[in-house]
Amino acid sequence: MRNGSRSWQYAAAxxxxxxxxxxxxxxxxxxxxRLAGNHDHQAxxxxxxxxxxxxxxxxxxxxxxxxxVPRSGWATAGLVLGAGLTLAMNVGAGIAHSxxxxxxxxxxxxxFFVACEVVLWxxxxxxxxxxxxxAPATSRRSVPSGNFEAAKLSMRETAAAGNxxxxxxxxxxxxxxxxxATKLWQPYQSPAEVRPPAPSAGSRLPAGSDPPAxxxxxxRDAPPGLSVPxxxxxxxxxG
Length: 239
Fold this sequence. Notes:
Layout: H1 2-35, H2 42-45, H3 48-67, H4 73-95, H5 99-130, H6 145-160, H7 167-174, H8 178-185, H9 191-194
Helix pairs in contact: 1-4, 1-5, 3-4, 3-5, 4-5, 7-8
């Protein structure tokens, strides 16, 4: 619990840092928008576009990583475009004042981007820790926790669709060990599919169990050494 609380404290610190960078970046963008001749309400909206696009694209990439699916090309392109736009607005606002201010303003979007990445990483780490039934987030499994959580989510979805992953598929698709694949696979199997095999012919019967009846059920009461005819007619005579 202490490690989890400390992790969220780090996330809160990163959120504060991202907020400070966002305020500076917004003011620089507003300055550039007004410098370009926009003096109505649009001047207040332009600075929000690049920073909000960065946040949205980062969230999309985070969800793709958690689900174990390929990254969205649009999210990657939007992240690059948002970073380029906010960098251009900050540097442009700095140049209007001095070269030193341009350098300082150029670092603001970089700090904002890194702080957002750190906060999202802590959020992802916290979710992974809460999904393991109280287990610490820093598991010692040989497979990264993201793979195991992605396999868990995918197993739930495929089971709901009526076609759950097999153990071999879980191992090959998500890189899990045999024990991890079995842990995810077994809860979705019916009791008949996981029951123990029947005892072989040479195995001993459990204590207190009745031996199997002989093939000719009519001879079970015959005394030892006395053979019983295989077929007797209704009058007790040989057929």
